[in-house]
Specification:
Elements (H helix, E strand, L loop, with lengths): L5 E6 L7 H12 L4 E5 L5 H5 L10 E8 L6 H20 L7 E5 L1 H13 L2 H20 L3 H28 L9 H27 L5 H28 L7 H33 L11 H8 L1
Antiparallel strand pairs: 1-3, 1-4, 2-3
Helix pairs in contact: 1-3, 3-4, 5-6, 5-7, 6-7, 6-9, 7-8, 7-9, 8-9
């Protein structure tokens, strides 16, 4: 937390002159769980002389609170929320009264606000993202059945990727959690890439199935598309994986998730799972169009 301390500002008439109460509040803040240290009025005389902690008017004071976890981690956000909930009572108990106005700022406070604002919207955002990807598949393939299970495979690969990320970072490396915005960013990118690969791979099968039975079309078209997809996937996974070399945890998490997710997608989902599902479901995959029935009819003729 030292790299980005949380700032607490208290405003009140003449609060700067109430040195004992201000010092008592600083000591109370330092005793809170998740707080590694507090710097406030009276702790650094030079800073006090420059007005860093007490306003010239004497009507505001500031504390710098160092949390004991990384500013954007969930433990830091939880500690800050606890601090914010207890701050009015602590100020009152220190003798500052109940008419003091409190403000909290810093990266952790910003992250907490973003999480609070977006948590309720994540379901709607996810539904819209899935809906857009499904619509694109329906339009391109002119079918309703295949897009459903194609999108389901992308979601399945995403779930496996996030699970591997949790196992690696939390179980293997011992981290408390993943940075709050990393899974969401990885999900958006992986779903978009999965839709691209779906259109490219299945589009080849659709074209081949116009002239031959579906099973034969899969045998012909799948090697043609998977070769290009695998090569592009390896290059893309390596490029995103380079983010893990950046000595910042969010970049490392994002690089790992994108690299692993793309490799899972191209080598398991597109190479094995999609051809298997196309074979099992059969020509009904193109319903309501009859794109996959043309080759079957020609073969019988």
């Amino acid at each position: 937390g030292i790299i980005s301390p949380t700032e607490i500002v208290l405003e009140g008439e003449g609060i700067g002159a109430r040195e004992d109460a201000v010092a008592t509040l600083g000591a109370a803040l330092e005793q809170l769980s998740g707080v590694a240290g507090v710097v406030g009025p009276g702790d650094i005389p030079t800073a006090d002389n420059l007005g860093a902690f007490t306003a010239e008017s004497g009507n505001a004071v500031r504390y710098l609170v160092v949390l004991d976890s990384t500013p954007l981690e969930a433990p830091a956000v939880d500690s800050l929320r606890t601090l914010a909930a207890r701050l009015p009572d602590l100020a009152s108990g220190a003798g500052l009264g109940t008419d003091v106005t409190t403000h909290i700022g810093g990266d952790t406070a910003l992250a907490s606000g973003i999480i609070q604002d977006t948590t309720g919207d994540l379901g709607r955002i996810g539904a819209v993202a899935l809906g857009v990807n499904l619509l694109l598949l329906v339009i391109f393939l002119r079918a309703l059945v295949a897009p459903l299970y194609l999108l389901a495979t992308s979601v399945l690969a995403l779930g496996a990727t996030l699970g591997l990320g949790v196992i690696f970072f939390q179980d293997h490396l011992g981290q408390d959690d993943l940075t709050f915005y990393v899974p969401f960013a990885a999900a958006v990118l992986l779903l978009s890439l999965g839709s691209d690969y779906n259109i490219f791979a299945v589009g080849h099968v659709w074209q081949a199935a116009r002239e031959r039975p579906l099973r034969e079309a899969i045998l012909v078209a799948t090697p043609q598309s998977t070769g290009a997809i695998n090569a592009a996937g390896v290059a893309l996974a390596a490029s995103f994986g380079m983010l893990a070399l950046v000595p910042l945890r969010p970049f490392q998490e994002l690089g790992f998730l994108l690299g692993v997710g793309i490799l899972l997608d191209v080598f398991i989902v597109r190479t094995l799972l999609i051809p298997a599902l196309l074979t099992l479901v059969g020509p009904v995959s193109s319903w309501p169009s009859r794109v996959l029935h043309g080759g079957e009819a020609r073969a019988r003729a």
